[in-house]
Amino acid sequence: MPAAFRARFDAAMASTLGNDPYGHGSRPAVPGQEPTRRHATVAGAIVRYYVGGPPSLVVTAVKIIHG
Questions:
Q1: What pTM value is reported for the model?
Q2: How many domains would you assign to the chain?
Q3: Paired residues of 46 in beta bridges
């Protein structure tokens, strides 16, 4: 991932899914199963991620598709 895009992507992740992993137009990766396995579009990239917690909220991106 080019450095300029990576900086923009990291900032977008922090301000969107980092604040609310169930928001920002995200949806379950497989409807009706595992609501913590999700995908969303952030800064033009498709992100598949898991939400972990409590007690701490952890968002782990497992796949990022960027053209």
A1: 0.85
A2: 1
A3: 41, 65
